[in-house]
Design goal:
single chain; alpha/beta; four-stranded parallel sheet; 8 helices
Amino acid sequence: MSDLVPADTTEDVRTRGAGVSRQVAVLPVGSFEQHGPYLPLATDTLVACAVAREITGAYPVHLLPPVTISCSHEHAGWPGTVSISSVTLHAVVRDIAASLRRSGVDALVVVNGHGGNYVLGNVVQESSARGERMALFPAAEDWEAARERAGVVTSLLTDMHAGEIETSILLHAHPEMLRPGYETSDFVADDRRHLLTLGMSGYTDSGVIGRPSLGSAEKGKELLASLADSFGAYFSLLTSDA
């Protein structure tokens, strides 16, 4: 549980905040959706939390507990998937940011673990336009840099869901959560132009799109290390006086 829920006391937060010129909080946002027969429904939450933990180990930021259910409507065809509306997720993130500002933490980084959470980009855009300090992490460029550094073979296009990247991160961070089957579940569907209309069930029977058989714990470790390095630019931007 310590990997998912911060163990900070209020004094820990007070002490950490006293040592920085501008306080930054990190909010992992995951999902609760199918990830094939071998990865848990909470995979995206586990990934977002792993990324956030890596960040907090390298930068003086406040780690928040994760948002565990989000916009997974494209996975509705599989048992276990649970979603909230984009309007609800938008409101939740805005409310969290407002609460943080009232307590003296005026910068928020949303660490998104689920590609279907399109609305998070709108939240950040709108907040930034109002003069609030907010960022969405990782960007596609950050994932691409991490993919190259870790030696991930599958492209970001092909590695869409429950593939090499997610399998690798869980093999590193939560190997106990994987079940047998990822070694033989590769499936590729690069042309997904009607995904928003058809959902995932229009492109895969298993729920997998990617090559999980190529995943490894070492790749997962390097993916997280690269993302922590990439976060430096976000931290500098949010804590600058500009």
